[in-house]
Amino acid sequence: MDALSLPKQDRSRATRRRLLEAAIACLAEHGWAGSTVSVVAERAGVSRGAAQHHFRTREDLFTAAVEYVAEQRSAAVRGLLPQVQLIIGPARTYLAVVQLVDLYTGPLFRAALQLWVAAANDAALRARVTELEARVGREVHRMALELLGADERRAGVRETVQGFLDMCRGLGLAHLLTDDTARRDRVVRHWTGVLSDLL
After folding, report:
1. Are 44 and 21 in contact (CB under 8 A)?
2. C-alpha distances out from residue 79 to 75, 91, 104, Å
3. Residue 171: how many CB atoms within 10 A of its CB?
C-alpha cells in the first residue's frame, strides 16, 4: 500500500512523524542556526506549507520533535524493564547504567542541547524548553529508579541517582566534542560499583 492510498488521517500522522524525525536529525547535525523549517521540510520530503500546517512556528516544530524522541526513547527504556527486573545484583545495575548513559550520548541529547542553547537567548522558547525538560527529567529519574530497583525513601538514594544522572549529562557533553567511549566505559564501571554499593 503506498502513501496515497492510506486514509487521510494516517497520511497526516505519517507526515507529522517524518517532520519530527527530520527536525531531530537537523538539530543534531546542523544546530539551531542551520535548522530551519524549510530545511526540515526538504529532509522530510514534504512542502514547507505542509510543515507549517502541522507546526505553526519553528519553535513548535523543534519543541515537539525533542518531546517526540524523548517519549520514544523513554518507551524503549521502559521496554527493557521486564528483562532488567529478571537480573539481580551488579549485572542489573550495569545494564541500567549503560542504558541511562546511552540516553545522554545519542542524537536526542545532541538535539536537546541545541534547543537549550537557543532557549538561553530566547525568552519565549526558554519557557517551553524549561517546561519540557522538567517533564523529561522527572520521567528519566523515575525510570532510573525502576531500572536500578532503587527505593528513594532510603537516605541518600534520591541524591545519588540524581548525581548519577547529572554525570550522564556531563558524559553527553564530552561526547559532543570527541569520541569519549574509552573513558565513558571506565566511568560506567565506576558508577555501577557506586550504585551497587548504595542500592
Report:
1. yes
2. 6, 18, 18
3. 19
Instruction: Please name the amino acid found at residue 111.
Output: A
Q: Phi, psi (5° rounding) for residue 152?
A: -75, 0
Compute the distance between CA of residue 77 and CA of residue 38 in angstroms, rounded to an integer.
32
Q: Which one, of 41, 26, 36, lies nearest residue 58 by Cα?
A: 36
Question: What is the spatial distance between Cα 107 and Cα 35, in angstroms, rounded to a whole number?
Answer: 15
CA 114 to chain centre: 12
DSSP 153-165: TSTTHHHHHHHHH
Please tell me the distance from the alpha carbon of residue 120 to that of residue 82, in angstroms, as a whole number. Answer: 39
Q: Give pLDDT tens digits for 106-140.
A: 777 777 788 888 888 888 788 888 888 888 888 88
Per the listing, cell 528519566 goes with 140
